[in-house]
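User: quick one, fold this
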Amino acid sequence: MSVVDKVKNTLQRFTGQSKRTAGRVSGDPGLETRGAAEKIGGDVRQAGEKLKDTTR
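Assistant:
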């Protein structure tokens, strides 16, 4: 896994978690949902990168 991809995935996960929390605190279900989806996207990408590393 390249360091750049790892940082991008971690940043996406962090941003998603932040949006989700902000949506929950402000009572905005749309923001909460978008944040959760963004975090899941980062998790999936990270898992894909780890899978690529194990198959090499």
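User: anything notable?
Assistant: The chain has two helices and no strands.
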